[in-house]
TrEMBL record:
GO terms for molecular function: hydrolase activity. InterPro entries: AB_hydrolase_3 (IPR013094), AB_hydrolase_fold (IPR029058). This is Alpha/beta hydrolase fold-3 domain-containing protein. Residues 19-81 form the Alpha/beta hydrolase fold-3 domain.
Length: 126
């Protein structure tokens, strides 16, 4: 009985893996359309196993005519952004936090007020 259950479990696992491997939500680079998508900012780390796929996704978005920025943080592993301890954190983690804050400031100023470019020209929100 245990052998039969293992075989069934292995077949189920194989079928599930096959379905997941073909699911564009989990692997966006296999989507069928990359046109008319919202602006995107893609972050990759030099020593991340998923780096190439992330950067390739950025290329697909650009080729589809979308506005996209891609930034690779050199010398960093996956999840480097979490290494932000005030005394022993990675410098690139703090750089990532600053970059993200700047991006969010830009997005919120552009969307929530009269627009980023109007503010730069001296327009007031008061």
């Amino acid at each position: 009985l245990a052998g039969v259950l293992m075989k069934v479990r292995d077949q189920d696992r194989h079928e599930l893996e096959e379905k997941l491997n073909n699911e564009w939500i989990l692997t966006p680079v296999i989507a069928s359309n990359f046109k008319n998508l919202p602006r995107a900012h893609i972050v990759t780390a030099e020593f991340d196993l998923e780096r190439d796929e992330g950067e390739y996704y950025g290329k697909l978005l650009k080729d589809g005519g979308n506005e996209v920025t891609v930034k690779r943080y050199e010398g960093c592993p996956h999840a480097f952004a979490h290494y932000n301890h005030p005394e022993s954190g990675l410098a690139k983690s703090f750089e990532f936090i600053e970059d993200t804050a700047e991006l969010l400031r830009y997005v919120h100023e552009f969307n929530c007020f009269t627009g980023f470019f109007a503010q730069q020209d001296g327009a007031s929100n008061e």
